[in-house]
Amino acid sequence: MFKKILIANRGEIACRVAATARRMGIQSVAVYSDADAHARHVAFCDEAIAIGPAAASESYLNIDRVIAAAKQSGAEAIHPGYGFLSENEAFAAACEKAGLVFIGPPASAIRAMGSKSAAKSLMEKAQVPLVPGYHGDNQDPVFLQGQADQIGYPVLLKASAGGGGKGMRVVTRAEDFADALSSCQREAKNSFGDERVLVEKYLTRPRHIEIQIFADTHGNCVSLFERDCSVQRRHQKVLEEAPAPGMSAERRQAMSAAAIAAAKAVSYVGAGTVEFIANQDGSFYFMEMNTRLQVEHPVTEMITSTDLVEWQLRVAAGERLPRLQHELTINGHAIEARIYAENPEKGFLPSTGKLDYLHMPQAVQFTHGELRIDAGVRQGDVISPFYDPMIAKLIVHGKDRAEALARMAQALATFQVVGPATNVAFLGRLIASEPFVSADLDTGLIERHHDSLFPEPQTLPLSVLALAAASLVASPSPSPSKGEPWAQLSGWRMNGTYQRILAFSSEAGEQPIQLSYRRDALWLTAGESAVAMQEVSVNQAAVQVRMDGLQLQGHVVRQQDIFHVFHAGHHWQILWRDPIAHAGEGEADEGRLTAPMPGKIIALLVSAGERVVKGTPLLIMEAMKMEHTINAPGDGTVSELLYAVGDQVDEGAQLLSLSVEVA
Ligand code: ADP
Ligand code: ADP
Ligand code: MG
Questions:
Q1: Beta-ladder partners of 510
Q2: CA 236 to ligand 3 center in whole angstroms
């Protein structure tokens, strides 16, 4: 076995490969771009080597630099992960030339399957069923249109060299063909440097079912059964599961045989996936073969109790497959959900930014436990625009689909992210949706159920308002681990009942609340409802409120004006227009600044007669145990300070006067 391998990838897959290497006592070497110097995969591997600037083309895709890093580190083999150089025939060849083992199939197999068109011709010869269509060399637009007319609309145009759902166009009417063809060719040329396309019958309501195969150099080739990846957006997988619901033993056998025939036709070695598109009646056609480990390989590992990366390493080192076909069985059901930094409400557009807060559920045993999390990031990391915006993969296993689904719901409910937009809430709705629960699967599921998957924003429940209010009144604490005892709010009761209005709003509209400090409790009034909050405790993001004999728990993370409240599996965002933070806005004309609520002056930052410019900090007030700086609303001169440090001020009190210069 190898002593040291280099992982030519980043993110979760680099971490995942390194985890197996570690378990097998193999040293791992990470490579990283400038953007990834502090990435999790760099910290996770035993060594790390910088390979260039952020742009993937100058780092992770730079064959010479990756090979040089491997040589420098003394690694004997390179694991390419998926994406990047994993299906690059030149890279596989370059490894060989440099005396390094490429942990993947032979370059010839990558080449054979690299073009969807050529692969289809090959499969035709191997008698693997194909989607009706044209996949030949003739790229004349008139000829291709003739083929489409013959196949019958709708047809699908695909980039022969395509991948990742890119370069595909559905054409429903003959008159749209020419335009769709030129735009498909353009995208194919831009994304893959190859404008060749193929035309296929576009199946309606199909399922995406793929077979995981594995071959060694001793002539063994097995099927590790199927994965159903029908739930997609933009022709890209969102949820994957194994086994495929409704799969019969005969159909599994037939699909496995077709996949093994495909692999044998190209003398395949290593992990590969043969993707099929299946009709609702079960008939299936070859779509393409991915000559690498796949993003969704964990569901297969869960149901077969295997570690496919270990298998890859063993096969690459010349060993036999750890298990043969008769030793492989399916145990239970597994589901994977891909958590992306993206905005489902805005057409699933990727989102970027710092992961200000990241709380993931606790994994229960790696590779074949109940809950597995493959993540490439930690709290504080940045989802950059340079790479795939995946945050993590959640993988669950259960004795059956219902149990796996319940675990997934639970895991998603405790997955909390503040920073970029994510699809976590969307995934929660998706796995609870009627079509998914009843396994009524096809690739159009998300589009067809768009309305129920994207409900109107809901008004904030009282519990959520209470958690936000509690976090506001009880934090920040000087020692966050201890939290702020409720008793410390007593100061606010000295003048009897004190009331405060918080201008809360959410996507569903404005929802101001009123807090009344009474002897017995802090009363919260929202609309028609009122509730007494008897005890509040805050421990970092965790907030507890006792109200009406009920113990309410949640997590609240504040980002400037926004409260992110995580409660009962939901992520609510509350916008708070803080009157103190905004004090002075709109008051510039009057040249005076008033206290929008009672508080204590804790610092005066200017003196009478001093000139200030817009934004100059004037004084600091403390209210509700939080400091607020009051800034000059415009350029001017401080005419008079009306309070001293330590003074309590009432709501509406004028704090200082400023003569504002009129431009
Ligand atoms: P598949 O479904 O074939 O496993 P995906 O749909 O997950 O592949 O992704 C398509 C392509 O997107 C992959 O072949 C890979 O190039 C790229 N990709 C997806 N996720 C990542 C990632 N985390 N890091 C690098 N590349 C990725
Ligand atoms: P990629 O290389 O981008 O993964 P694929 O050929 O695997 O391209 O197709 C991606 C997805 O597009 C499939 O999973 C399926 O949802 C859809 N698709 C592909 N071919 C067809 C087809 N002939 N009819 C309907 N949908 C298709
Ligand atoms: Mg595919």
A1: 505
A2: 8
Residues with a catalytic annotation lie at 292
Strands (E) across 181-332 are located at 197-201, 207-215, 221-233, 236-242, 270-278, 284-290
Backbone angles phi and psi of 502, in degrees to 5: -110, 125
Which distant-in-sequence residues (6+ apart) come within 8 Å of 380 by Cβ? Answer: 354, 355, 356, 358
| Ligand 3 centre distance from Cα of residue 373 (Å) | 23
Protein residues with CB under 6 Å of any ligand 2 atom:
131, 156, 158, 162-165, 200-203, 206, 208, 232, 235, 275, 277, 287-288, 443
Tokens found for residue 171: 């054409």
Nearest residue (CA) to ligand 1, atom 22:
388
Between 490 and 499, residue with greater pLDDT: 499
User: In the 8-state DSSP scheme, what is residue 104?
Assistant: S
Smallest-distance ligand from the CA of 278: 2
- The residues near 90 (Cβ < 8 Å, ≥ 6 apart) are 63, 107
Task: Measure 624 CA to ligand 1 centroid, in angstroms.
Answer: 48
Q: Is residue 648 in contact with ligand 1, taking CB distance under 6 Å?
A: no
Residues with CB under 5 A from ligand 3 (ion): 275
Give the residue whose CA is nearest to atom 20 of ligand 1.
388
Q: Pick the atom of ligand 2 nearest to 200's CA.
A: 23
Do 361 and 415 touch, CB atoms closer than 8 A? yes
Buried b (16+ CB within 10 A) or exposed e, 518-547: eeebbbbbbeeeebebebbbbbebebbbbb
Q: Say yes or no to pLDDT of 184 above 50.
A: yes
HEC profile of 585-635: CCCCCCCEEECCCCEEEEEECCCCCCEECCCCEEEEEEECCEEEEEECCCC
Q: Are 183 and 285 in contact (CB under 8 A)?
A: no
The whole-model pTM stands at 0.86
Ligand 2: nearest atom to the Cα of 163: 2
Give the pairing type, strands 77-79 and 101-102: parallel
DSSP, residue by residue, 171-200: E-SGGGHHHHHHHHHHHHHHHHS---EEEE
* Token digits of residue 615: 């934004």
Mention every residue, 6+ apart, whose C-beta is less than 8 A from residue 442: 205, 206, 207, 230, 280
**Sorting pLDDT into bands at 50, 70 and 90, what band is 518?**
confident
Centre of ligand 1 from the C-alpha of residue 271, in Å: 15
CA-based nearest residue to 282, from 263, 255, 260: 255
What is the reported pLDDT for 519?
73
Condensed to tens digits (0 to 9), the pLDDT of residues 21-40 reads 999 999 999 999 999 999 99
User: From the CA of 499, how far away is ligand 1's center (Å)?
Assistant: 54
- CA gap 377, 47 in Å, rounded: 18
Distances (CA, A) of 540 to 233, 316, 467, 558: 36, 47, 13, 11
Which domains can be identified in the chain, with CATH numbers? 4-103 (3.40.50.20), 135-201 (3.30.1490.20), 207-453 (3.30.470.20), 462-477+491-576 (3.30.700.40), 592-660 (2.40.50.100)
CB half-sphere exposure, 415, CA atoms < 13 A: 30
Which bound ligand lies closest to the C-alpha atom of 295?
1
Q: What is the mean pLDDT of residues 46-67?
A: 97
Given the DSSP bridges, would you call strands 382-383 and 498-502 parallel, antiparallel or unpaired?
Answer: unpaired
